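pasting for ref
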Amino acid sequence: MNLFFWIKFSRALFAFGRWYTNENRVRLHIVILCLTGSFSGLAQSQNWVETAPGIWKFSVGKPEAYNLLTAAESKPNVEALTKLGKTGFPIAKNAISVRVEGGKTYLRLPLDRGEQIFGFGLNFQTVHQRGKILQLHMDHYGSKDNGRTHAPVPFYVSSKGYGVFVNSARYINVYAGTAVRQDSKNPPKVQDRNTDKTWEARPYSDAVEMLVPAEGVDLYVFGGPTPLDAVRRFNLFNGGGCLPPRWGLGFTQRVNRLYSADDVQKEAQEFEDKQYPLDFIGLEPGWQSKSYPCTFEWDKGRFPQPGLFVKTMLDKGIRINLWTNPYVSPEASIYPKIAPYTGSHTVWVGAVPDLTMPQAREIFWGKFASDHVDIGVSGYKIDEIDGYDFYLWPDVATFPSGLSAEQMRQTYGLLVQKQSADLFHQRNQRTYGLVRASNAGGSSLPYVIYNDYYSHEDFITALINSGFAGVLWTPEVRASKTSEEWLRRFQTVCFSPMAMINAWASSTKPWSFPEVAEQIKEIAQLRMKMMPYWYTEFAKYHFEGTPPFRAMNLEDGFQAAAKKEVLTASLEENPYAEAVGKEIKDQYMAGEYLLVAPLFTGQTSRKVILPKGKWYDFYTGHFAGDGEVITVTPGLDKIPVYVKDGGIIPMMPPLLHAPKPAQKVDLEIRHYGEKPAQSRLYDDDGETFNYEKGQYAWRTITVERQKNGQWKGSVSKPEKGKPDTIGKVTWRFMTSR
């Protein structure tokens, strides 16, 4: 090479050195990454698309065609999302980092100091998720809240008022404020363990990082401005919450697994004779000719005339719900037809239908339609689709559709919910049942999660977390060691999405402990009396996305008040500030107005944290407190419940069965506190999907104080042609005394 070349080359290097500033270095980095196929948040920061008001989507790499939303076939409720209004993008876009490398997707989102996060599925022991390392993996309940759970929903909510959702049907690894990067803009302080008493084994982390084992993913951000608004948007994005039939919110008894038709009818008659409410009965495995694996066919010895049996029960106002798992016995009549559309591995020696294939769906659900739904069966309990690893198909299994065993495991609960619910929707008939697995996309599906775990305290934590995950959970009652435990569990389940005794093994009944039988009857009747309130709250879940049962962290005036109190007073001077800063796992909101604070076996008193604003005792109307921590001793007969100032609770007579379509029901409307108020009452036929065609009514309830100081209430009239099932209305003003 000649001297002229080296002179030009030296000048070029000098010019490049002057150009290669920090800013241009980033530009060059972007060009290189785009050329090589690796991406960063900076490179794609302009690719966020607002898919609905307050919801933004970012497609990273090459997202897989099959995901949680496609499995659930969920469709956003755009009209309701529009009513929530617009809000700004809640995170600094340049702080979001993504890349695809080695067939995996890496996501990083920022966390501020003091920011708490909630969600990541149906956890049983923790509400605060910051500082957790999880693998979101469909499984039976976990003992350490490590991400393996019945609903490993890849959605989290920030205390700052936004949500993040990763739409992937893969096992996602989550580092929720645990990992510290060298290039962090907010690094933790370097400490010397030898001399610094404040040294921490887990240094401060300023990010949530997630690893998705796929070459791309759809990432969503949900705006607020409050955490509850972010949750609402998530639920509405998934179609809105389910709206059960009225009878689904009544009382259900699951009978012994080997009961016959005569046994079931005898037990139903006992409920009526003893005046305990009952809306549907669950038949356990013995209704089938064989189970584990299943034939899906009636046992001819125990149920010789299933059609007549179901009709007889319906005539009594009691519906039948059938237990099943989806694993097809080689002795089932549908086995030869469905075998080509099943997976490579069995579960309990039963074939696993590939329910993503139309052929499998037609054969499988066709059997359910002809043998069950067509004769009047009202719903299902779908068992054993969650785990453990040694129960379900292994990750090495293959399926004829080509989907991986991992994808099938993450979504099988969604598939069985959606496809079974469609059987009823096609008949314009609502259903409400039980399931052992769900995931994101399943908010609108009419199923409540349950399991074989039996910690009362952890059941309440799960109920609280269900509100972050877009699922429903029941703290069911089974056997109990004492009458106290029996009553305490029963009190809780009557303030949950499904009031149920599961007596498949124990044969227990509401009156199994005679010493508390009357208290049990009273709380069961209270469940029925409150049906107008519960039904309205589920309508808000459906039309507005508000979870009917949710954490205190989503209650306006709870966390905001905590932050204010911490800033203005020391913890020694203000126990309320200290209390709300802790993880609250034993009290929750039930609907718009009620705060429920259960007691557990052995407890005679407990502390209750009341958010800012006046609160009143549900039973007496007495003033309970205002933004403070109270200690209560309610006695065995009552579960502590408090109503916010201005709360309006519509109630009906304690019927033994839910009202029938068009049945007029008298109402007693209670108003609590000193605040004039307006509330809404939902009405439709209670059984069909005619509400989807506009056949529903929202009635406005108004309570105001007159000039003479007396309270007066009114209920607006329904629009012409709309449902009207309200009979005589009486008012009860639960003013503080």
